[in-house]
Structures are given as structure tokens and as C-alpha cells.
Amino acid sequence: MKDLPPEAGDLDSRPFQPDDDWLAAASKELQIAAMRRWFLDRYEDPANETPWDGEDKQYVYVWGGPYDPNEEIQDRFGGVVEYDTMSELIEELWREVGDEWAPIYHEGADYDDYVSRQIIADREDPHHFLEDRIAEVFAVLEASRLEGTNKRLLHQMAHSSLIAALEAYLADTVSYWIEKDPGAMRRFVSTNRDLQERSLTVAELFERLDKLSGEIKVYLDGFVWHRLDKVKAMLASGLEIRVPDIGNLMKEIRTRHDIVHRAGRRADGTLVELSMEDLSGVRDAIRQFSTEIEAELTLRFPVQPGASTHSDF
User: Fold this and answer.
1) Most buried of 170, 200, 219, 224, CB within 10 angstroms?
2) In the prediction, which pLDDT does 313 show?
3) For the chain, domain boundaries
């Protein structure tokens, strides 16, 4: 990509926004470079971060999309850059990834995706909290059973609460075992791509080791726990357990996204309608998933006879 001059816009800002007056007068080569940077600061190959639904064999665009370079570039630069110039870049982007791009998600940008981890003293605490939260959700639903009352919003909120409880369970479980088991921490660091992106000099290596525990805590605090595809890999490699199928839960993650980010409407504009039977199905899927995880953890980290469930490594 050709280097842009200072007058192209604030080159240090992310995402980059070119100056339209400069862009209109720039050479074709610079126009393409500026538009490419604008686009790549906002959109990426879905293979990078977008969850993959293995059952339906498709990406789940939980942060919006997919986005077509043809639409996005023309919407932004139409009237500023000649169509033939835009078309050249659009065809390049199509060749690179195609016409379905994902938005670049900035960790921590969405308060809704933040899960506050609790200090877990006992290995059973995450599962107990999950079960307690599920019971609370259904107690509210049961108390609100009034004939003729519109339950759409209540049922949508209940669905989101169930998924949030699952996220908290996963966050607390991973955090507990990484903190308690030195082997789990080593495997987590050695297999986590996000923590390996930056190369280190020998001098920097020891400094990073001193700060590694804090770095992991920050990473886990900012992790998006409804990215079940990444969570599955984290559990399998870091904790060395078999992870149950996530296909059914991925569909509920998609529904949760429509509730939270589209105000209860699907991408086609239809309302998300959830019956008590639907919510019971979500509850049962979460319970089955978490129960299988707990069984795997018991096999991997057995409780010593006569010992409490509190673990000290």
C-alpha cells in the first residue's frame, strides 16, 4: 500500500478518515491507497474473528454484516472519487476476500460485551451461580404469567439473561483454572494467538514474564465470552478437556445479538418472538453444555478423596 502524505488526513487516528478535499485532487494511486486504508480500518476477512457455525457451515455476523466493498466504498466515496477508480479497488477487495466482509470489532468498545469476573474461591462456584441465575430468570417468568399480557419484551430479556449467565460461567471457569493450575496457565499462554502477536527481545522477555499474570487477567476481562468458537478452543487447549458441541448455542448467540443490538428485530426486520418453550430449550441447552463441561473438569482435575472442592495447587 502506498504511503499517504500528511495532508491526506490524521494518519495516526484509527479508524482512518481521509480528507475529502485532498482526496478529490489526489492522484489515482493515492486515492486507491486512501480508500483501501479507510476500508481495511473498518472491515476484515470474517475468518479472522467472526464466529463460525459448524452445523450450518456459515459465519455468524454477531457484530453486523456481512458488508460488500462495493456498497461501503460507493456510499462513502461516491461524489468524491470517480467510479472507475472505486471499481478498481472494489475488484481488488473482492479478489482478496469476496463480497462478504466483517466489521472490525474493537475489544472493550461495547459495554454490553464486557463480563465482570468474580473472585472464585471454590471450583463449584461458577456452576452454582449459573444454576442460581437460571432459576431466578424462570422465577420471574413464572411470576409474570398473566393472561393477555404481551410477553415479547420480557421473553427477549429473559433470553439475553440466560446467555449472559452462560458467558459469566465460562469466564469464571476459565479464570479459576488458569489461576489455580500452573499447567493450565502455561498452555493458555502458549496456545493463545492473541497473546503471541507481539515478538519480544530477550531483554523484554523477562519483563513480560513478571507482568504475565496481570496481562492474562486484563485479556480475560476484555474477552468476548459469547465467541463460543474461541472459547471452545481455549477450553480444549488450555484446560485439555473435551468440549461439547456448540452448534445449538451458536444459534442462540445469534438471537441474543438481534435482541441486544437490533432492539429485538432480526436482520430482515421481523420481530424476535420467543415462547416459554423456546426459553426452556435455551435453558436446557445451557444446562447440558455446562454439565458436560463440569464432568470433563472432574476427570481432568479430580477432587482428592476427603478433600474439599476448594483447590490449592
Assistant:
1) 170
2) 40
3) 6-103, 111-300
